[in-house]
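Quick illustration for those who missed Monday's session on complexes.
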Amino acid sequence: MALLRSIRSVVVGVRNYGVSAVQKAPPKILITGGLGQLGVECAKYLRAKYGRENVILSDIIKPSTEIFNDGPYIFADILDFKGLQKIVVDHRVDWLIHFSALLSAIGEQNVPLAVRVNIEGMHNVIELAKQYSLRIFVPSTIGAFGPDSPRNPTPNITVQRPRTIYGVSKVHAELLGEYYHHKFGLDFRCLRFPGVISSDPPGGGTTDYAIAIFHEVLRKGHYQCYLKPDTRLPMMHVRDALRALSEFLEAPSEILTRRVYNVTAMSFTPEELSDRMVKHLPEFKITYRPDSRQEIADSWPQVFDDSEAQRDWSWKPRVDLDTLVELMIREVKEKILANGYHCVH
Ligand code: NAD
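Prediction with nicotinamide-adenine-dinucleotide bound:
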């Protein structure tokens, strides 16, 4: 055991010297669904690490001038297999980060589209990754668990059986990726993220309240929450999420005992979050009016067990709840003012 630990720390040490220690040239990375909450920040993060031209952002949406000027941006529809093949060949892609998806609340509103984007799209990218020997990262979620799963804590391997099409499609992606790994040797990597909190507008998930609350309170002074005050869910600041993604992508295959890992940073309820916010914004009001998202949240993990990620590739979160509140107040305020709006706080 001690020997295994020391081998692991040497490997992690080598990894920390950066790409050049393990690879000759930085990888060429394609991000699908890149104009969502995570993609733009992810491109910034990886461009700082691997170089601006080595990270290609893609989506089916027209980008803002700022995003277009930030680095390479192209159209890529994940439902168009030939189009994806052309991109991989033309740009000599090595790693694929597959973000395109319809999230939990949006998926329930349009199940056939969620099946196409989340399931057919996954078939395309995994086949593509196999054909061109790409390293492929696909995020999963706490939504890949359901009412039969243990909720506090939720271990890496347990009963899943989610009740949303989003969750069903993510379990499908996890299993397909593991299967392609065992059958074809595909370098498939998947992290189950909790609610990811950043100042960018969220994409229609159930944990979005923890972002919307900052925007509404800073602009209007009050927030009506769609979850009950005691709804506990796992969460993580985007800085930690992107660091987890990057460290996991760089981890040598030999130290990974799994292809799918839980990661998290904290768990809190709307009431606990607003109590921390009151320390900085004493005037604000929160009211509660649960809607259909309450049922989704009630079937999800409350506390996520990421001990396997900690053990295998030394995962460790850095942003706690107090720091998250400070960061969000500062970053959301900057975004509101940059967009020409006024802050009441
Ligand atoms: P998002 O909804 O903000 O963005 C998804 C993007 O996919 C959108 O920009 C959309 O235009 C794009 N898309 C839709 N159809 C497409 C198609 N046919 N071809 C190409 N792109 C298409 O999502 P996000 O919050 O940025 O999440 C990114 C990934 O991370 C998702 O797979 C999500 O499941 C996962 N994840 C996110 C969170 C979170 O809290 N944000 C938590 C866990 C997992």
